[in-house]
Amino acid sequence: MKLIRKNLEKDGEGSITMCPEEDEDMWHAYNLIRPHDILRASALRKVSTTSSTGSVASQRVQLTLTITVDKIDFDAAGGALHISGRVLDENKYVPIGAHHTLDLELHRNFTLSKTLWDSVALETVRAACAPGENADIAAIVLHEGLACICAVTEHTTIERQRIEMSVPKKRSPEAHERGMERFYKAITEAFLRLFEIDKLKAVLLGSPGFYAAGLRDYIFSFAEKTENKPLLRARPKFIVEHTSSGHKHALTEALTSPAVKAKLADTRYAKEMEAVDAFFRMIHTDEFRAWYGAKEVAKAVEKGAVGTLLLSDSLFRSQSVAERRKFVAMKEEVERQGGEVLILSSIHESGVRLGNIGGIAAILTFPLEDLDEDEELELEEPKLEEDGGGQN
Amino acid sequence: MTPQQKQQMREGLKKTREVLGHDIPGVSDQVIEDALWNYYFDVPQTVNYILIKYPRPQQKKQSKAKGLLGFGFQASSPWPAMSAVEMGYFADAPWGNIPQDRKGELVLKGPQLRGGLLGGSSSGPKSSKLAALAKKRKEKAQAATPTFGEEKTSISLLSRLSKQTSSAKNVLEPVSPAPRPSAQSPSSLPSGSPLRPPPPQTSTARETPAPLDSPQTDPKARTTVDLVGLDQPKTQEPVVLVAETATQQKALGASPSSFAQSIFGERITLRHEITVTNTTLFFVPGNKEAGKANPFAGPSPDDVVAAAQSASKGLNKGTHQKTPAPTIQKTEEVLKNLSLEAAPAAKKVEKIDVLKAYSESSAKENINFVVVGHVDAGKSTLMGRMLYDCGAVDERAMRKYRQESEQIGKGSFALAWVMDQTEEERNRGVTIDIATNHFETPNSSFTILDAPGHRDFIPNMIAGASQADFAVLVIDASTGAFEAGFHRQGQTKEHTLLCRSIGVQRLVVAVNKLDTVDWSPARFEEIVQQMQQFLTNAGFSMKNVTFVPMSGLTGINVVRKPDDNVIPWYNGPSLLEVLETSNKHTRAVDKPLRLVISEVFRGGVTNPVSISGRIDAGYLQEGDVLVSIPSKEQAIAKAIVCNDEPAKWAVAGHNAVIHLSGIDPIHLRPGDVLCNPTSPLITIKSFNVKLLAFEGMTPMAVDVHKGRLHAAGKVSVLLQTMDKSNGQVIKKKPRHIPPGSLARVTVELIGEAIPVEAGNRIVLRSSGVTVAAGIIE
């Protein structure tokens, strides 16, 4: 994303103009644009005009429209962002109050005005506009009969295609081998269709057993057969890793491996992953230093005990302004106390793991017991927990 | 033969000739080639064999039938390749005065040890179209008479002669009035042949063809076959075809040659009559229903077998007179049945009361067991050994495995190759997927599910264990190996826990590789102690656990009992004996049908869509309409195959192959469930599980395993933890579940809903570790 203009008041009100440059920027825009914000962007609108004789002519007009945002819809696989709302400024085609859905497009500026640019939003802008190296990774995790082809960027992991194929088992060895070949072929073709090899930083193949190595061998024998030069050149980009299955969540295992970490441009991802890992380890080993759930973490923050606060960016997309403010305040409080705050992308694998426990978790610097004890002690249980997490 | 084999054949022939020279009478190139083929191109063995068979002096050539070995383990084509007459074996023998050395000895053994690889041999030569046709006809005949193989034993001796059938059970060839020993070509026999070869020959029946029938029995027996077969090329297929056709179409009516007439006179007529009734009894062309009109009206197949056995034994002693009686009785019975319930000739499949048929069937119980254990404990080798010693793998295949495994420097893996059929598995020396094999003993019919030990393939092991009635846990007793399998990440523990949580109650612990520690009783005792403690904790009742010391590679105490001084401190049963003593399993036959697909494959040209799987509950029969869940597509069960044999029906507990029609294979995936359309399974996306946690749990992403089903899901809510002993709730909504505790959680599927229902046992895994196992509520 390119930052075009930044126009902020002291009280946090103002507007920022940006230009999205790649698919991932749509994800950032999705995290920035909130209901009730004001968005100005170019739009294509179908306009019907009725002539004096009553005949109706319709034409598509390129316009720049300003709308107040009602609803945001993000399509991860397609990288498209649809924002619907009501038109704020009148022009000769569109009256005020008319509904319009803006589709943000690459390489077209948009201007976003907020009544309050909070620290989280500003950080998102900074992260989005940081001139980072493009760290695109193609990742394929597979086991016999199932493969997930994913695109991994700094902030997103998107499942581009899932291949399910029934491979004959051992009953007839020849049929099994033919089946595996067919399976590898389908993966290879999908992979070549979905990615431009030259732009990839690394290709990660992960599987239990020998399937990943088998796939790599197949891909290169395929490349040799078809004399696919770019693919042959890309040989060093291929990394084979071990994962426990071919499901998308097994990608975490491959991404944390040292070989992959070395290939990743920045360590943000690895750091997030480590923090989430540490949290899950600690919840079993040192129960009272690892807490999850909004209420529990809020109490821990009050007591100044939070060392690392893990937040999912989905929390900041909440519909309720008060809710969003609460989490922003929590984040600012922890930073003030000297703690570390990590905001995890909810479509990244580590963010998904955090999402499973409600999107908020904290590692404390000292153990706190009974954070989950509430007023409601009327039941026979000495500890009645208010889970908070899990229902996400 | 592949070009490579042809090349090997040429070289082998040349070498053998070099050694043997050309001066041995009767040793033609053909004979040598056959021997080479038998011995898998092993020249020294071939030479040895020929020298034994064809001593240089006087004796003229011994016949040697071309092997049927290429058919792998199916043993489905029992026709001898060439008759003794054809071979000229008796050309110089005077009628009625057979030299003593030509006489074979025929020893009858029980109708046992029939088995075969479900997967078939990887390298059997393609059978010709004629052979395929003949086989098909035979199958058709079998389909018409479900208990064909067994009832056949009751066929009168004479009619059997005319039919020349020797089923896989190998009915005795009857002999001529004079109580003389006779023998039959072993090439037509399955590996577990009841034949004992004549004394001068080497150990197994497989590799040493016995002399063919003596001429006096022969002409009578082979009139139909040989008269036609003589002008056929010397392959077995045409003979089979002709014989089959002759039997089926009552072509026996063709008038005997004048030669036969003059020699046998009236006896031919007698034979003819009986054959006709017999044909009606077992094959009614165009009327499939007749055969099974009342399949259980007669004596049970086992009784019939027993009767036939005793009759045949008696015959050997020369008291063969009484045999015709039961046949006539039987014939009358069937004729009566025929007249009463002559079913319409329509192709429509008649519905039978499967439950009744099942409860009345006295067939051997089908027992499925899974073989588990740490990687390299020797599971596949042990099972290969068991199949080999039980005769379910023939000598030639074994020889081939030996030679080929030695070629790639993995000689000790030869037995494992019986189970590990894919190239990848053989090259890497590990089992990757479940191998399903089948063998029989006199009392039981077994299905082996050989599970992979490597931790990456635990999903496959779960699939195998969920098809099993009990488990054989193989433990590597060699120094250090037991400990490696037993530590926290070892599969000895994980597999055992998985088996237990999948519902396996009974465990046979095979303490393997004891030969590497000189059969040390201390080592055995140490392992037993440790395992007993662990198994008790895992929830096994000690009365359901048996320990057996053995060695899979050498085969000591697997099938064979050890020699007296090998394991002096052990006098318990061998592994096979332990397997046979398994108690009767109760099957949920009266529940709605649930057949979990474990694989989808192409069963052949006529059966483009076939599935295999275990019937968890209920039953089905040919012609049933089934619905596949979750695709909700309907299919018709065109044919059912249980344990390599066509069946009319199958019930819970069977691992069956079902040929389907009316469905596209894309609607069938491993893990899907076939149900009855009237009581289908309802797929669900979210369910509560009462589980035992092996690892600490929080709300987390998990893989949900149930049999072949492998779906991505997540634990979304932790509902409560419970007291292990009394099930009391300890804590509601816990933040996490500590390892080893009993808990109740909600699991949500990511992606599509899966076919599971309350009472199903599932396993939850995450990052390659088994997290928990439990029952859906």
UniProtKB/TrEMBL annotation, chain A:
Picking any one GO biological process from the record gives: ribosome disassembly
**Where is this protein primarily located?**
cytoplasm
Which InterPro entries does this entry report, sorted A to Z? eFR1_2_sf, eRF1_2, eRF1_3, eRF1_Pelota-like_N, Pelota/DOM34_N, Pelota_N, Ribosomal_eL30-like_sf, TF_pelota
User: Sorted alphabetically, which SMART domains does this protein's record hold?
Assistant: eRF1_1
One Pfam family name from the record? eRF1_3
Q: Which UniProt keywords apply?
A: Cell cycle, Cell division, Cytoplasm, Meiosis, Metal-binding, Mitosis
This molecule's function is given as: Component of the Dom34-Hbs1 complex, a complex that recognizes stalled ribosomes and triggers the No-Go Decay (NGD) pathway. In the Dom34-Hbs1 complex, dom34 recognizes ribosomes stalled at the 3' end of an mRNA and engages stalled ribosomes by destabilizing mRNA in the mRNA channel. Following ribosome-binding, the Dom34-Hbs1 complex promotes the disassembly of stalled ribosomes, followed by degradation of damaged mRNAs as part of the NGD pathway.
As for family, the record states: Belongs to the eukaryotic release factor 1 family. Pelota subfamily.
**What's the name of the protein?**
Protein DOM34 homolog
UniProtKB/TrEMBL annotation, chain B:
Name the protein family. Belongs to the TRAFAC class translation factor GTPase superfamily. Classic translation factor GTPase family. EF-Tu/EF-1A subfamily.
Q: Does the keyword DNA repair apply?
A: no
**Region annotation Disordered: residue ranges?**
116-156, 168-221
List the molecular function annotations (GO) for this entry: GTP binding; GTPase activity; translation elongation factor activity
Q: Which keywords does this Swiss-Prot/TrEMBL entry list?
A: Cytoplasm, Elongation factor, GTP-binding, Hydrolase, Nucleotide-binding, Protein biosynthesis, Translation regulation
InterPro entries referenced in this protein's UniProt entry, alphabetically: G_TR_CS, GTP-eEF1A_C, HBS1-like_N, P-loop_NTPase, T_Tr_GTP-bd_dom, TRAFAC_GTPase_members, Transl_B-barrel_sf, Transl_elong_EF1A/Init_IF2_C
Tell me the domain of life: Eukaryota
Question: What Pfam families does the annotation carry?
Answer: GTP-eEF1A_C (PF22594), GTP_EFTU (PF00009), HBS1_N (PF08938)
Q: What Gene3D superfamilies is this protein classified in?
A: P-loop containing nucleotide triphosphate hydrolases (3.40.50.300), Translation factors (2.40.30.10)
The entry's localization annotation reads: Cytoplasm
Q: Where is the Tr-type G domain?
A: 364-589
Q: Which organism is it from?
A: Sphaerosporella brunnea
Summary of subunit composition and partner proteins:
Component of the Dom34-Hbs1 complex, also named Pelota-HBS1L complex, composed of dom34 and hbs1.
Quote the protein name from its UniProt record: Elongation factor 1 alpha-like protein
A biological process term (GO) from this entry: cytoplasmic translational termination
- Which Gene Ontology cellular-component terms appear in the entry? cytosol; Dom34-Hbs1 complex
**UniProt catalytic activity:** GTP + H2O = GDP + phosphate + H(+)
Renumbered to this chain, the Low complexity biased-composition regions fall at: 123-133, 181-194
